[in-house]
Design goal:
This protein is an all-beta fold. The chain contains no helices and 10 strands. The chain has strands spanning 7-12, 17-19, 27-32, 43-50, 55-56, 60-62, 68-71, 73-74, 80-88, 93-101. A 5-stranded mixed beta sheet has the order 2-10-9-4-6, with no helix packed on it. Strands 1-3-7 form a 3-stranded antiparallel beta sheet, with no helix packed on it. Strand 9 and strand 10 form a beta hairpin. It is elongated.
Length: 107
Protein backbone atom coordinates (compact mmCIF):
# COMPACT_ATOMS: atom_id res chain seq x y z
CA UNK A 1 0.00 0.00 0.00
CA UNK A 2 1.40 3.38 -1.03
CA UNK A 3 1.25 6.09 1.66
CA UNK A 4 -1.07 8.99 0.88
CA UNK A 5 0.71 12.04 -0.52
CA UNK A 6 1.61 14.76 1.94
CA UNK A 7 1.65 18.51 1.41
CA UNK A 8 4.97 20.22 2.17
CA UNK A 9 4.73 24.01 2.10
CA UNK A 10 7.04 27.00 2.51
CA UNK A 11 5.85 29.02 5.51
CA UNK A 12 8.56 31.68 5.82
CA UNK A 13 12.17 32.55 5.09
CA UNK A 14 12.07 32.19 1.32
CA UNK A 15 13.43 35.04 -0.80
CA UNK A 16 15.39 36.75 1.97
CA UNK A 17 18.71 38.49 1.55
CA UNK A 18 21.39 39.64 3.95
CA UNK A 19 25.04 40.51 4.35
CA UNK A 20 27.71 37.81 4.28
CA UNK A 21 28.05 36.18 7.69
CA UNK A 22 24.91 37.79 9.16
CA UNK A 23 22.14 35.83 10.87
CA UNK A 24 19.02 35.52 8.72
CA UNK A 25 15.39 34.71 9.46
CA UNK A 26 14.70 31.01 10.00
CA UNK A 27 13.51 28.84 7.13
CA UNK A 28 10.15 27.42 8.19
CA UNK A 29 8.20 24.61 6.50
CA UNK A 30 4.92 22.84 7.23
CA UNK A 31 3.99 19.25 6.45
CA UNK A 32 0.40 18.01 6.44
CA UNK A 33 -1.21 14.69 5.63
CA UNK A 34 -3.43 14.47 2.54
CA UNK A 35 -6.44 14.97 4.85
CA UNK A 36 -5.03 18.35 6.00
CA UNK A 37 -3.99 17.25 9.48
CA UNK A 38 -0.43 18.08 10.61
CA UNK A 39 2.19 15.42 9.92
CA UNK A 40 4.18 15.37 13.16
CA UNK A 41 7.37 13.47 13.95
CA UNK A 42 8.58 13.23 10.32
CA UNK A 43 12.35 13.45 9.75
CA UNK A 44 13.51 16.37 7.58
CA UNK A 45 17.00 17.23 6.33
CA UNK A 46 18.12 20.69 5.18
CA UNK A 47 21.07 21.37 2.86
CA UNK A 48 22.41 23.95 0.45
CA UNK A 49 22.07 22.40 -3.01
CA UNK A 50 23.20 25.35 -5.18
CA UNK A 51 25.32 28.45 -4.69
CA UNK A 52 27.42 29.52 -1.71
CA UNK A 53 26.94 27.27 1.33
CA UNK A 54 24.87 28.75 4.16
CA UNK A 55 25.41 27.78 7.79
CA UNK A 56 22.29 25.85 8.87
CA UNK A 57 21.67 25.78 12.63
CA UNK A 58 19.76 22.52 12.50
CA UNK A 59 20.56 20.52 9.34
CA UNK A 60 18.19 17.74 10.39
CA UNK A 61 15.26 17.33 12.72
CA UNK A 62 11.67 16.14 13.04
CA UNK A 63 8.44 18.01 12.46
CA UNK A 64 6.64 19.17 15.60
CA UNK A 65 3.13 17.99 16.47
CA UNK A 66 1.78 20.93 14.43
CA UNK A 67 3.68 19.68 11.34
CA UNK A 68 6.18 22.55 11.34
CA UNK A 69 9.95 22.45 11.24
CA UNK A 70 12.55 25.18 10.93
CA UNK A 71 16.26 25.82 10.73
CA UNK A 72 18.10 29.02 11.52
CA UNK A 73 20.55 30.32 8.94
CA UNK A 74 23.70 32.38 8.73
CA UNK A 75 24.34 33.91 5.32
CA UNK A 76 27.23 32.51 3.29
CA UNK A 77 30.75 33.93 3.50
CA UNK A 78 30.59 34.78 -0.24
CA UNK A 79 28.00 36.87 -2.05
CA UNK A 80 25.61 34.99 -4.33
CA UNK A 81 22.26 33.24 -4.52
CA UNK A 82 21.86 29.93 -2.70
CA UNK A 83 19.16 27.28 -2.95
CA UNK A 84 18.41 25.43 0.30
CA UNK A 85 16.45 22.22 0.08
CA UNK A 86 14.28 20.74 2.81
CA UNK A 87 13.67 17.02 2.20
CA UNK A 88 11.25 14.95 4.26
CA UNK A 89 12.09 11.28 4.77
CA UNK A 90 8.76 10.56 3.08
CA UNK A 91 10.12 12.06 -0.18
CA UNK A 92 8.61 15.55 -0.30
CA UNK A 93 10.99 18.42 -1.01
CA UNK A 94 10.94 22.21 -0.85
CA UNK A 95 13.45 24.75 -2.11
CA UNK A 96 14.20 28.15 -0.60
CA UNK A 97 16.09 30.93 -2.37
CA UNK A 98 18.42 32.98 -0.17
CA UNK A 99 20.71 35.76 -1.43
CA UNK A 100 23.94 36.77 0.31
CA UNK A 101 25.15 40.31 -0.34
CA UNK A 102 28.75 41.46 0.21
CA UNK A 103 29.58 42.32 3.81
CA UNK A 104 29.96 46.04 4.49
CA UNK A 105 33.54 47.15 5.05
CA UNK A 106 34.30 48.60 8.48
CA UNK A 107 34.76 52.37 8.49
Amino acid sequence: VQPAPRNFVLISGNGQSGAAGAVGAPLVAGLTESNGFPAGDVAVEWRTVEGPALVLDQPSGRTAANGRIQTGIRFAAQAGTSIVEARAITGETLRYTVTTTPAQAAR
